[in-house]
């Protein structure tokens, strides 16, 4: 039967074949097939969200914040179940999945507080007039979210969109559809019917939602998909937010401890099996410490491969991409001192891999590999490393490890990225936001600034009308000025 969107607090029901089949990344076993939405379901979801939009926009901001707090409480209660689904569909260890869900709860709570105090600005004009701006919701928001940190990333966009008065259609990644649907079932009851809907599907469903008559599209995923979505938004007039691919550099200066720097590099390259948007994707190390650094990084990778802490990649297709990048580097003269080969056995495992003697033209140095691979290129000077770090078509993030304040300031000024991290590959204060650049996307992601992305500004000018004919002409102000 065709998929339809129903106006219930459970969100969008999707019933259609043939569906999305998910395999366990650890064993290769088929776990389940999730129905995929068709064109009618997409159209119905947009219609339902459009009908619900005026009422939700008119809801008091404090009430919207209260609904978001209720959603956060429900999410916290459902954390074990959702973490289990995350582990089953993507291979992420349950403790890491639980940490991602805890971050999502905190994000929803943060937007529940920020939303009601999101305000416009007063403007200076005539002292007997009032000029100010009002932030209004854009309308219907389509959110297309990834699989690598599926709950935390989704809830950042969901929270900001809902608390500012938009209705939401969420399409989770087709790599974790059961988790996406379960997340919708947990969150939707906190909101009025039609305000938060979930639609399952792959690239065709994402394209249909992007081409629909909606008001804002937020996408976290590959640069290729982001470019298609940007083109679709240009045709429909939707406001488009994109956090897309990255090829984030790590620049290691000569004056840092090599073992510490290798530890930072390992965290950046191997965490979540390298499947993080801001993972370390390429490393430039000063020649003076290159030997010690490389040996320490090799040891870091070996420990992870020996103790089995490297989780599988999300699926075999991802592993094929990662190994193709490694094979390209090896064919061009790189050396794999640890890892670098597809392991025997079931699942989509890939070892923590250290590649030495890398050069500029290799795919691991120019593309987003998105796996547990640490490619190292030795540079003669800090300036040489910075020049290489500034190269490429991406602009998501970069990390600098240095004790030289002049080098740090030079790098901060030069790196063409949305986020620069100094002496820590991960971390940052709550509420931080950044603007990806180039093929890494556009628009603010997360933080208070994300509320601005989901609203549009109306400027208001108010002044008194002229006095009726025959009325006294003196104003109160003028009379008060009389002697």
Task: Report on the architecture of this protein.
Pfam families: Aldedh. The chain is α/β, with parallel strands linked by helices. It folds into 2 domains: 246 residues, 3-Layer(aba) Sandwich (Aldehyde Dehydrogenase, Chain A, domain 1), CATH 3.40.605.10; 174 residues, Aldehyde Dehydrogenase, Chain A, domain 2 (3-Layer(aba) Sandwich), CATH 3.40.309.10. 41% of the residues lie in helices and 18% in strands. It contains 16 helices and 19 strands. The strands form 5 sheets. It has a 7-stranded mixed beta sheet with strand order 11-12-13-10-9-15-16, sandwiched between helices. Strands 6-5-4-7-8-18 form a 6-stranded mixed beta sheet, sandwiched between helices. The chain has a two-stranded antiparallel sheet with strand order 1-2. Helix 2 packs antiparallel against helix 4, helix 3 packs antiparallel against helix 6 and helix 4 runs parallel beside helix 5. The longest helix is centred in the N-terminal third of the chain and has 21 residues. The radius of gyration is 25 Å and the shape is globular. 52% of the residues are buried. The N terminus and C terminus are likely disordered.
């Amino acid at each position: 039967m065709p998929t339809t969107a129903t106006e219930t607090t459970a969100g969008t029901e999707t019933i259609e074949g043939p569906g999305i089949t998910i395999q366990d990344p650890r064993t290769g076993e088929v776990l389940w097939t999730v129905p995929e939405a068709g064109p009618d379901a997409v159209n119905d979801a947009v219609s339902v969200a459009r009908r619900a939009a005026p009422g939700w926009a008119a809801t008091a901001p404090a009430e919207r914040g209260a609904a978001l707090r209720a959603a956060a409480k429900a999410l916290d209660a459902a954390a074990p179940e959702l973490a289990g689904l995350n582990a089953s569909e993507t291979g992420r260890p349950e403790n890491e999945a639980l940490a991602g869900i805890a971050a999502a709860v905190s994000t929803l709570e943060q937007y529940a507080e920020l939303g009601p105090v999101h305000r416009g600005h007063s403007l200076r004009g005539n002292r007997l007039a009032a000029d100010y701006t009002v932030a209004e919701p854009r309308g219907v928001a389509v959110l297309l979210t990834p699989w690598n940190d599926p709950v935390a990333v989704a809830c950042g966009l969901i929270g900001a969109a809902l608390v500012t008065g938009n209705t939401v259609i969420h399409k989770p990644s087709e790599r974790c559809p059961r988790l996406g649907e379960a997340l919708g079932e947990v969150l939707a009851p906190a909101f009025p019917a039609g305000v938060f809907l979930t639609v399952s599907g792959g690239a065709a469903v994402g394209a249909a939602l992007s081409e629909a008559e909606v008001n804002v599209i937020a996408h976290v995923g590959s640069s290729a998909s982001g470019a298609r979505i940007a083109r679709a938004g240009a045709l429909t007039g939707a406001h488009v937010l994109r956090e897309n691919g990255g090829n984030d550099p790590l620049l290691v200066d000569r004056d840092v401890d090599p073992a510490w720097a290798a530890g930072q590099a390992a965290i950046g390259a191997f965490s979540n099996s390298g499947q993080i948007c801001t993972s370390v994707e390429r490393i430039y190390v000063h020649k003076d410490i290159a030997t010690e650094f490389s040996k320490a990084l090799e040891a870091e990778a070996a420990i992870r491969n020996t103790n089995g802490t490297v989780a599988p990649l999300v699926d075999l297709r991802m592993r094929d991409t990662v190994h193709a990048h490694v094979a390209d580097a090896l064919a061009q003269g790189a050396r794999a001192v640890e890892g670098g080969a597809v392991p025997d056995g079931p699942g989509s495992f890939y070892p923590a891999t250290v590649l030495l003697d890398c050069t500029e033209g290799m795919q691991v140095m120019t593309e987003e590999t998105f796996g547990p691979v640490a490619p190292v290129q030795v540079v003669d000077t800090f300036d040489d490393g910075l020049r290489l770090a500034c190269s490429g078509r991406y602009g998501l993030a970069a990390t600098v490890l240095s004790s030289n304040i002049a080098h740090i300031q030079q790098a901060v000024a030069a790196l063409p990225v949305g986020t620069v991290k100094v002496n820590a590959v991960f971390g940052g204060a709550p509420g931080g936001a950044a603007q990806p650049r180039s093929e890494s996307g556009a628009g603010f992601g997360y933080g208070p600034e994300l509320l601005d992305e989901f609203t549009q500004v109306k400027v208001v000018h108010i002044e008194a009308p002229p006095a009726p004919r025959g009325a006294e002409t003196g104003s109160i102000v003028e009379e008060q000025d009389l002697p």
